[in-house]
Amino acid sequence: MIFWHVGATIAIARYTFRDDRMDLRMLALGALLPDLVDTPIGLAFFEQLQSVRLVTHGLVLAAAVLIGVVLSTRRGRPRKLWMPLAIGLLFHLLLDAMWLDPETLWWPFLGIEFTPADQATASAYVAAVLRDWRVWAGEAIGLLYLVNLWRAARLADPVARRHLFTTGRVDVPIDGEAGC
């Protein structure tokens, strides 16, 4: 789920941290990273792994990134750049309700196996995901938020888009997102 993870992560982070200077590029990357890494590997080796939620869907990676950012950066620009990556990873776990998959969330502390999917093959897994109304509802919610943020930030304007792509920021005060 792309729009769900990016849209919901940006919305939650902006409203929780109230930081309109947070780098949304790194936040979005963190929000997508577990699926970008685990899904292709899980689908390619589904017969052996029986899951597409693997190592990056666990707390170990998110905690390692968070600790790495804190230990390797000081307050200021480098930390401001890299901390949203860790936040995005943690929000991905929250939005995927990973507490329902404790073997994966706490991997490797509860064993080296990941929580198996309910489907026997990769194609059956993909078909089940594409039929799941919750997937489509989440995508719609995330897309609605992103469209509203796009409009509020006037990202149809090339200058505003360039600002987003070069700084990771949008010129929308968080309180100005009331309609989002």
Secondary structure elements and their pairing?
Blueprint: H1 2-17, H2 24-44, H3 46-49, H4 59-72, H5 77-95, H6 102-105, H7 122-131, H8 133-152, H9 158-167
Would you mind describing this structure in some detail?
The structure is a single chain. The mean pLDDT is 94. The chain has 180 residues and is mainly α. It contains 9 helices and no strands. 66% of the residues lie in helices and 0% in strands. The chain starts with a helix and ends in a 13-residue tail after the last helix. The protein has one domain.
Rg, alpha carbons: 17 Å
Look at the structure and give the mean pLDDT.
94
- Number of discrete helical segments: 9
Quaternary organisation of the protein chains: single chain
Percent of residues in helices comes to: 55-70%
Structural class: mainly alpha
Order of helices and strands: HHHHHHHHH
Number of separate domains: 1
- End-to-end gap: 20 Å
Segments where pLDDT lies below 50 for 5+ residues? none
Main sheet summary: none
Strand content: under 5%
Count of extended strands: 0
Shape: globular
